[in-house]
Every structure is written in structure tokens, then in C-alpha cells.
């Protein structure tokens, strides 16, 4: 009779709450500009010291204003794009949970709902969408702990988002925010 014992290191579960906000405005010239903003909330459940499942929600807004000077008239076209993104990712942290710097990678899937509205001057707006899709997402990041439970978190994510109901594009997103570990 052969008896085998396997030992598995026990580790306590812990949770991380995160908030991120991103804003960028670019003035191309006096009459043309783009403005982007997004906010993300996330909750990560660490079931091993370095591995977590993260659920996230991102709401984003993109506004582009273009002036068209055709012939004698001048018109302004405003394009507004809204997106709601629900993410589910697996995170792997490359450092011990007590380390001040914690680089990580993540990968998973996202459900995206995207719509767009375009309006020229005061005319009735034209709309496109909403378009829906489930697509892969992946990213890298770094957490820097300010205290035992509060960290600055930065990351760079890429995901495939729907252009319409059949075509997708790669979107990239940089983030900076705070995380609270408990």
C-alpha cells in the first residue's frame, strides 16, 4: 500500500478595489479638436498571492469637432462616441504581495456596447449603433504601494472593439488610478 501526502501552501483571500480616470484634450488648431475621457471601476479577488480575477466597468466618451470651410460657408461637425465596457480578466502579479512595486499582466474578455452620433451645426444628428461585441482584452501594469493598503495603479490595455456588427478594431487605453487592498 502506497500513501502519498501533498502539501499546498494556504493563502488568505484578499480583495482590491480600483478607480481610474483618464482625460485628454487635443486642439489641432483654432477650429478642430478632440476630447476623450473615461472612468473605470474594478474589483479584483485574489485567490492566490499573485493571481486574481478582476471584474471591471469602463464608461468612455470621445468628442471630435471639425470645421469644414467649403466654398463660402463654414460648418462645424461634432462626432460623439460613447462606449460601455464590461471586463473579466485574469491577473498575474510578478512580485510578492508585500513588495512596494508590483508589475502585472492580465488577459481576458470584454463585452462592449458602442454608439456614435454625428451632427453638423444645428441639423438633426445622425446616429450609428449601438454595436455590441465580446472580444479579447489584455494588458500590462504596475502598482506602487503608498501604504500597506493604498496603491497607485497604472496600466496599458488593448481590446478589440466593434466598429459595426461585423468589424472590429484594436483600441489602446492608458490608465492611472488608485487601488485599495483589504
Features of the shown structure:
182 residues
Structure description:
The chain has strands at residues 14-27, 33-46, 51-70, 73-93, 101-120, 126-145, 150-162, 168-181. Strand 3 and strand 4 (73-93) form a beta hairpin. The model is unreliable at 4-8 (pLDDT under 50). The chain is built from no helices and eight strands. By secondary structure, it is mainly β. The chain starts with 13 loop residues before the first strand and ends with a strand. Helices cover 0% and strands 75% of the residues. The chain has an eight-stranded antiparallel β-barrel with strand order 1-2-3-4-5-6-7-8.
Number of helices: 0
What value does the Rg take, in angstroms? 21 Å
Query: What gap, in angstroms, lies between the N and C termini?
Result: 46 Å
The strand line-up of the biggest sheet is 1-2-3-4-5-6-7-8
User: Would you identify the regions where 5 or more consecutive residues have pLDDT less than 50?
Assistant: 4-8
* SSE sequence, one letter per element: EEEEEEEE
Estimate percent helicity.
Answer: under 10%
Structural shape: elongated
Q: Which structural class do you get from the secondary structure elements?
A: mainly beta
